[in-house]
Amino acid sequence: MSALHKLTPFQNVGASLTAVNPAVPTGFVIECLLFKLSGSLTAALSTGIRVVWGGKKIVDITGSHLTDINDYYQYPSDAAYLPLWFADPTANNPSDYMAGALDTSVPSSGLSIEYDMGAGATHGLELFGWLSAPQVQGDRTKSLFRALIKANHAPSAATEHDLAIPMGGGGSLLRGIHYFHTNITKVQVLKDNFYLIQEGALATLQFAQGIFRTAQAGLISYDPIYKNDIKDAVPTLRADGNKATFAHKITTSAADTVVSYTDLLTTHANF
């Protein structure tokens, strides 16, 4: 059973500042971190959100991009609340829902959050969490958590480009890759030279994903779990235990600035 809790207050909250929450309580499962925005603070003015667990930055994203990814996945949305889901509220069953939930009873050196705020009059920021009891030792998802890894790319012309997409360590499961862009027309992803998605034209992808997802302007996603089935996540290891080789290709109609987010299920040891 999960419950909504108000968590430790942020320090240094104010316009054009970085609020910090240096010691978020641990010892339970975090299904969702919920940021309550007030005053003049909006998702658009939330210019950077970073979650560090056990000394590793497991989330690095802007408020606007988090909102678009949430809306794409059809997660609950509200202008005054910005949720960062580790669990999957659209999953097909309770086990899949918990895959990705951050079990902070797993030993680590602590959990902290940094939150960059843009200019404004008066900013307010509070932190809540959907929390539940630690998962049973040996549960297949106990050590797994969702991570969002940010990368910046600058394709310089209208052609096909190979992107350096961070994939975390070996042993992760790929939930998806989200590309924020202006001029991408096609996405292709290969694993060990096998096409996971080929000729992924923007309109075709959005149509295929449209039953379970909601298209967002300026966002195209490679989304192997688009049917809300975590079993479709792509292992980053081969069957023999060696790390697989991935290739990520995009085609643009002109030079572009692209921000990608690798959406992973991973473990602290593998990340």
Concise synopsis of the structure shown:
The chain is mainly β.
Number of strands: 18
Number of separate helices: 3
The gyration radius over C-alpha positions equals 18 Å
C-alpha termini separation: 28 Å
Estimate the helix proportion, in percent. Answer: under 10%
Unreliable parts: none
Mean pLDDT: 92
CATH architecture of the largest domain: Sandwich
CATH topology tier name of the largest domain: Jelly Rolls
**Fraction of residues in β-strands:** 35-45%
* Structural domain tally: 2
**Morphology call:** globular
Largest sheet: 5 strands, antiparallel
**Succession of helices and strands:** EEEEEHEHEEEEEEEEHEEEE
Q: Kindly name the structural category.
A: mainly beta
Structure description:
The chain has helices at 63-73, 94-98, 202-209; strands at residues 2-6, 18-24, 29-39, 46-53, 56-61, 81-85, 102-103, 111-117, 123-132, 145-153, 160-163, 173-180, 184-191, 194-201, 219-222, 234-235, 246-252, 258-266. The protein is mainly β and 271 residues long. The chain folds into two domains: 2-143, Jelly Rolls, CATH 2.60.120; 147-266, Jelly Rolls, CATH 2.60.120.730. The strands form four sheets. Strands 1, 3, 6, 7 and 9 form a five-stranded antiparallel sheet that branches. Strands 10, 12, 15, 16 and 18 form a five-stranded antiparallel sheet that branches. Strands 2-8-4-5 form a four-stranded antiparallel sheet. It starts with a strand and ends in a 5-residue tail after the last strand. The mean pLDDT is 92.
